[in-house]
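Researcher: We're reviewing a set of sequences before deciding which ones to prioritize for further study. For each one, I'd like a predicted 3D structure that I can look through quickly. This is ABC transporter permease. If possible, include the structure in token form so it fits the rest of the review sheet.
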Amino acid sequence: MRKRHLTWSGLYLALVFIILYAPIAYLVVFSFSAGTTMEKYHGFSLRHYADLFADTRMITIIFNTIIIALLASLVATIIGTLGALAIKDTHGKVRNSLLSFNNVLMVSPDVIIGASFLIFFTMLGVQLGFISVLLSHIAFCIPIVVLMVLPKINELSPTLVDAAYDLGATRWQAFSQVVLPAITPGIWAGYFMALTYSLDDFAVTFFVTGNGFTTLSVEIYSRARQGINLEINALSALMFVVSLLLVVGYYFISKHGSRRHRVVTVKEGDAQ
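Model: Here's the predicted structure for ABC transporter permease, in token form for your review sheet.
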């Protein structure tokens, strides 16, 4: 049996994970503290979770955040999937230009994007609030969906679509029964990633939100500036769990998509 030796790369990886997750663990542990500060742990208690669920303003903000995330992710997934299909049909410089434009929102600083949306909505006379936040979230989620769906489209064998046409399938039948099932894992992955980005976005939302409407990230920032409140710890712990579930869901969808692609590849090889 081979013995595993501790290497410098392993130590470095362990150190990175400790730096990343130690603050989160510290925050979660104190969300169960009976005290009101994070200076000392005062014993296990669920009082801060009870205070969180009794806070009607926070419940409303949570509801607003979930609605924004679900709607933005759904619309962005539809537009992003259609955009990825359109990019697949282009070639050469046109394709490269479209991919470059798609990546602009991915590489641009969030502060610049948020300020740009603020100026844009102000010029159009759009009142800052639910609509401005929703449109902004749709805009920065679309490139994420495109980047998740496009690889699945590239993996799709053209012979499957050609075979469908040879068997008399219409364009819609080929899309709905051949293309769409093949890229569904990428679509779901894009939806989950867009949902995660929308839920925890702060910089863009901070610029485009208005009076009477806010999201969790902006509310947490506002409360944190007023002082330590362990209710924020409880809320952050729940958000971390939700984000973790989304990541796990994305993992299983990607794994299922890879397994399905291998099965299709094997069947094509047997047919040939």
